[in-house]
Design a protein that fits this description.
alpha+beta; 3-stranded parallel β-sheet; 11 helices; binds zinc ion
Length: 420
């Protein structure tokens, strides 16, 4: 099921020029392709077999012939090819039924202009807080006016311009809310994480660093703050400095949001169930401990949990939050001994009872996972072991490699702060 949101967008002059150029290139390509089809139809209309099997030039072929097409969104050009093909197929479907109508028409500059692009690797983005939309190939964000909010991923966007010169973006999203939750989960796909200040999420197989979005920009932020306060109140200079500062905050916010969306999408794709600790304020302090105030802005736990929960449920999967009083760090994950003397400073410890050596965070993540499995069983969820590993310790390694690879592909190249 799909839903579309049509927003009025307010591109600036430079953005308008780029949008208009894209409309123009799309129209040009469409008409060129249609010309070809018309020609072929004329020549082969009495030779049905050849006509049906004719290989038309792709939009890439046209790009080689008309290099200026490369300057606009390639997804938009691909869409033109698709549009024409479906219009053409329609025409032939009618023809087979004996209805001779609907041969696609050339696009005119005088009509409503539009192009459709689709979301690949998050190249279409929307920022609800600042009411801005990001389209592929257009480097700056475009303002819009609308108060609606959605959490689903964008499927595609149709940008249009009315004859009177108003611009709109129609955003198509896919609703998957009718998916019922899975009652059978694969053990390999159940993962538990512990979290700490240095490593955002830790499990036995991999750890995701806490990306310090603000820390990286902290010096710049402080400098801009100082600049604002030095300038005279009400002066133009002060205003300019304020705008600069706001822009930097926005930039960091956007980066942060992209990151949260990306990581929650990956987790929800890879796992049937994610188990985390239900953090309270104290836990948050632990998470942010030792970091300066601006760094505590780095990460919004609530935002992360809300989006992750949504994305898991959208796929019929689960997010489980283990009780905040569960002593995840203090329990030995092997024998269950409770180490009451363990302090926050103890990063490693040896269980006095079974002599097992523990990394504090990894041990906690195993305990969190175990506790989550208990909750799943209480909820009458069936847990199956498809790969036939007997102990938890080995099953978690089964998915380790490809998950690690996938996470690495998605993160480490672009964001070096994420160590796996
Ligand atoms: Zn033990």
């Amino acid at each position: 099921m799909h839903r579309a949101y049509k927003l009025r967008i307010y591109p600036n002059q430079a953005q308008k020029e780029l949008l208009d150029k894209t409309f123009g290139c799309c129209r040009f390509l469409y008409n060129k392709m249609l010309e070809e089809r018309k020609q072929v139809y004329k020549e082969l209309k009495d030779d049905k077999d050849s006509l049906y099997n004719y290989k038309y030039n792709t939009e890439n072929k046209y790009k080689q012939e008309y290099p200026f097409l490369k300057e606009v969104d390639s997804k938009a050009l691909q869409s033109e090819w698709r549009h024409l093909k479906s219009a053409y197929d329609n025409f032939f479907r009618n023809l087979k039924k004996g209805i001779k109508k609907g041969f696609p028409k050339f696009k005119s500059k005088k009509n409503r202009q539009s192009y459709t692009t689709f979301n690949v690797n998050e190249n279409c983005k929307i920022d609800f807080n600042n009411k801005k939309l990001k389209l592929p190939k257009i480097k700056t964000w475009i303002k819009y006016r609308d108060s609606r909010v959605f959490v689903e991923d964008i499927k595609h966007i149709t940008v249009s311009k009315t004859k009177s010169g108003k611009y709109f973006a129609s955003i198509l999203i896919e609703l998957e809310s009718n998916i019922s939750p899975k009652q059978v989960l694969e053990e390999d796909k159940i993962i538990g994480f512990d979290m700490s200040a240095s490593k955002f999420l830790i499990t036995k197989e991999f750890a995701l660093s806490n990306p310090r979005f603000y820390r990286k920009e902290e010096a710049d932020l402080q400098r801009l703050h100082r600049e604002v306060s030095r300038k005279k109140k009400g002066s133009n200079n002060r205003n300019r400095a304020r705008i600069k500062l706001a822009r930097l905050y926005e930039k960091v916010e956007n980066r942060k949001r992209d990151w949260v969306h990306k990581i929650t999408r990956l987790l929800s794709e890879h796992f049937d169930c994610v188990i985390l600790e239900d953090l309270n304020l104290k836990g948050m302090q632990r998470f942010n401990s030792g970091l300066s105030k601006s760094v505590s802005l780095d990460f919004s736990w609530n935002q992360f949990v809300t989006i992750l929960k949504y994305k898991m449920e959208q796929r019929g999967k689960r997010l489980i939050l283990v009780d905040r009083f569960f002593p995840s760090s203090k329990l030995c994950s092997k024998c269950g001994y409770k180490n009451k003397t363990l302090t926050l400073q103890d990063r490693k410890w040896i269980c006095p009872k079974c002599k097992k050596w523990h990394d504090r965070d990894v041990n906690a993540s195993i305990n969190i996972r175990k506790e989550g499995l208990k909750i799943l069983k209480q909820d009458n969820i069936t847990i199956v072991n498809i790969n036939n590993h007997s102990a938890v310790g080995t099953t978690v390694e089964a998915f380790g490699e490809d998950v690690r690879l996938s996470f690495r592909e998605q993160f480490s190249v672009k964001n070096e702060s994420i160590a796996l």
